[in-house]
Structure formats: structure tokens, C-alpha cells
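sorry for the late reply, my laptop died twice this morning and i had to redo everyting from scratch. anyway the thing you sent over, i finally got around to it. pasting the sequence first so we're on the same page, its 307 residues, then the predicted structure underneath. double check i copied it right bc i was rushing
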Amino acid sequence: MSPTPPVLKIAFDPIYAHPLPEGHRFPMLKYELIPEQLLYEGIITPHNLFAPAPCADDIVLWTHDAAYVQRLHRQTLSAREQRHIGFPQSPQLTQRELVITQGTIDCCHHAFVHGVSLNVAGGTHHAFADRGEGFCLLNDFGVAANYLLKKELAHKIIIIDLDVHQGNGTASLFEQEPRVFTFSMHGAHNYPFHKEKSDLDIALNDGTEDNLYLSLLQSNLLTLLEQLKPDFAFYLSGVDILSTDKFGKLKVSMEGCRRRDELVFSQLKQHKIPCVVAMGGGYSPDIKTIVEAHCNTFRVAKDIYEL
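ok and here's the structure:
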């Protein structure tokens, strides 16, 4: 008899296990350490992890411009484009983005069955249709949301972006799409300094602490879920809201960050809305802090959904 399949499905990019170009290693390190820590604790087993294939171009092109996708494949991004992205172009990075994007799509199918599924990476919310920015080449939530709409798997989607940086690329992609509601709760005085217009933006002052942060999130999220009645949710659980973050400017504690995840998952489960999660940003000086905060998202998901 075959074993019962695990219900917590996590997209993991095996590219992270291979050497990357000089200068890319540290930013990618957390993506190796998160699953390692979860495996060590017994939160997951190897059967919970799956390695996505690269996303097909025809699916990417439902969201991104063909000329831009060609430049990614041909390694012909201009010097200016590479500066905006923050990484020098390389075939490995393009491949990585395609794998991340397919991982988020695959997570959608698992979320329909089990309520939640998580991508160890993803949340590349600064990527626009025709360009990348802020360490983001392709917008994985954007591609996955358009995939769900195109396949008629969802009809009203909410994107809950709680990274400390506004999801400017995501807001731009869906500005004229009423079936996708973009909700971004971010630092008012943080990157990107030119903000796009989400359907709902909550701009937080520097130094915002746990109580105010959680109060604003709870009241706004509950109202949105009751009014919009979405049938699918994407959740970007960036941990750059932490007080320890080098760039975040907020003062949310590790416990406050965990309670944020608990609040989001509890509300989505209560409203019976399938959810796909991507990790987003985290830039605390100590890599252990980043990994612990991200692992909390997985721990809370498992607890809330009783996986």
C-alpha cells in the first residue's frame, strides 16, 4: 500500500543547491536554509517538497511583454535594465525566475485541494509587464493570477502583499483588471519611492509597531474578504517588516510577524479561500533571524490548516 500523500506542498527550487554567479550567493542563501530548518525540526519531510519545472513562455506571455521575455532569454538586457533589477543578467537567474513562477502556479493547484501551499521563494512583486526591478525579473503572482483567470479556475482574486515594500509591479499589472484586487500594506518612506496605485494601499509610518500594524491589518483584511468575497488569495509574507531589518524602517517584533501570519491564515481559512504563499523580502543582518521569521510562516500554516 502506498503511503498517504502529504498535504502541505512546498515548492522548492533545486537551482539553489548549485553554484550561482559571484555576488548572488548571500541573497539566495535563505532559500536553501528555510527547507533545511523545516526538515531538521520535522515540520516537513522530503515528501512535502516538490521541484517545479520552468514555466512555459506561452504562460509567461499572458502577463509579460514578448520583447522583454526575449531579452531575458537572449541575455540582452541593457546595463540600465540590469541596474534597475539589481543583479547582473545570467542564464541561471532567468532559469530561476521561470522555476519560481511555475512553482507558484503549481502551488495554486495544491491550494485548491489542501487550502494552502507555499513557495520557498517567490513574491517577485516589483516586476512589471515590460521590465524588472528590485531583484525581480518576472512577477510570479501576476503570472499565476492570470493563469487562474485564463483557465477559469478563479473568478475573483485578492493579492495580500505584506512585504515592507509596495508591490508596485503587481499594482501596475492589475490596474485595469477588476477580477484581481491588489492590497499592499507597506512602508510609506521605503522603496519604491514612486508608488503605483494598488486597489488598496496602506502606507505605514516609520517605526510602526506590533499593535498598530496588526490592528490595521485585521480591520482592513476582514472588510475586504467580506466585501469582495474572493475565491482565491495570494499572500506575500515578507519578513522585512521586522525591527531588525536593515531597510524596513518598521518596528514589528518576531512575535508580531508570526501573529500577522496567523491572522491572515485564520481569516482565509474561515472564509474558505485557498491561499498560495510566497516568502518575499527579508534583510536582517543575521541570516538566522530571516530564516526563523520565514519558518514561522510555514509553522503557522501547518498549525492553522491542521496539516
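The domain at 10-304 is CATH 3.40.800.20 (Arginase; Chain A).
thats about all i looked at so far, will dig more tmrw
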